[in-house]
Amino acid sequence: MKELMPLIQKQEQEQGKSIFSQYQKLNIPLATCDDRLLWETWMSMFHFPTLTVADELGLFSFLDKRPNTASDIAKSFSLGDRATEAILGVMTSLGYLVQQDGKFNLTEASRNFLLPESPYYWGGMLKLMANNPLSHSTLLEALKNDKSSVYKEQDVWETHEVEPEKAKLFTSAMQSMTMPGAAGAAKHGDFTDVKRLLDVGGGSAAVSVALAKRYPNMHCTILDLPVVCSIAEEYISQAELSHQIDTYEGNFFTQPFPNGYDAILFSNIFHDWTWEKCLHLAKQSFEALPKGGRIYLHEVLLSDTKDTPLVATSYSMCMVWWTQGKQFTAGELTKLLLGVGFEDVSVTPTHSYYSLIYAVKP
C-alpha cells in the first residue's frame, strides 16, 4: 500500500489540476468560502428525529443505570453496528452523551431533561413532534397561506376542544417544555405581594405550580378552555396544590376576565396570536386589574433586529407552522403594554431563552 501512495497522490493532483483547468476554461469563478453552513443545515434535519428515536427506544434510561459500550448497547436494543454507531455518534456530538473509556454516559442535559422520572422530562414535546413531523410541504403550505398547517383546515385550538386526546398530547408537550422555564420565572421574577394571580391560557398549570410552591400565600387560577381545565386539574392534583390553584373555564377572547386578581400572567400565550389579538388581551387585562395590578408576559424574545438568536427565529417559524403568531422583541411587547396604559415595564431573563416582561397598572 505504501508503494501505491505516491501514485495515488500524483493522480489526485493531476485530477485537481484538470478540474481547475476546466473551471478556468468555462470561466466559472471558484467559491469564496466553503459550503460548511449548507452541510450543517442539511444534517440538522436528522438531529431531532434521532433524539425522539433515542427517547422512544429508552436509550437514556438504559444508560442512566450504568455506562455501556456501543457493543452492549447494540445487543440490548437489537440494533446493528452501523445503526448503533450512527445514533450514538449523533447523540454524543450534540452533547446528550459523552464517551469515556469506550463507554457512553449521560450528560447533565440528558439527566435533567431526558429521563422519564425527572420533573423536567421533555418527553411530552418529543412525543408531540414525533406524531406531527415537519415536512417541506406542510411548512410551505403554512407560509403561503399564513396559517397553521398542522391540522390541515382545522384551527389548532378548536381541534383541541373537540378532540380531547389531541388536547391531552399538546398539553403534555407544553408541560414538559414549560417546566424548566416555569421554575426560572418563579425564582427570578418579581412576584412580591401578589396574592391572587390569573394564569390566562395556563394549560397544564406548570407556571402556577412553580409560583405556588415558591409563594405559599399566593392563590392561582387557570383560565382556559373546558377540555384543558380538566387536564390542568390532574396536574394540579399530582402536585398536591388543589388548595392553592383552581381552574376557571372560559374563552379568553370572547369572555371578559374574572375580577378579583391583582396579577395576570400570560406564559407562552402572546406568541400564539396576531398583534391585534395580543392587543385585545392586554386591554382585557388592563380593564380587569385594579390600580397597582401587574401583568406578566413570559416569552422567548427575538433580538431588536429580529434575526437572532437562532432558537427564537426558529421558534417564530414553528409558530407559523402551528399557530397564528410569532415571537416578539422586548421592544414590541413594551410598546404594546404602554399603548394600553401600563407603566414601568421591565424585562428580566429567567431561564435559558426565556424572559419575563412585567408592567404595572397606574
TrEMBL record:
Residues 155-343 form the O-methyltransferase C-terminal domain. It holds the Pfam family Methyltransf_2. GO terms for molecular function: O-methyltransferase activity; protein dimerization activity. The active site is at 271 (proton acceptor). The keyword Methyltransferase applies. Gene3D superfamilies: Vaccinia Virus protein VP39 (3.40.50.150), Winged helix-like DNA-binding domain superfamily/Winged helix DNA-binding domain (1.10.10.10). InterPro entries: COMT-like (IPR016461), COMT_C (IPR001077), SAM-dependent_MTases_sf (IPR029063), WH-like_DNA-bd_sf (IPR036388), WH_DNA-bd_sf (IPR036390). One of its GO terms (biological process) is methylation. Keywords: Methyltransferase, S-adenosyl-L-methionine, Transferase. This is Methyltransferase domain-containing protein.
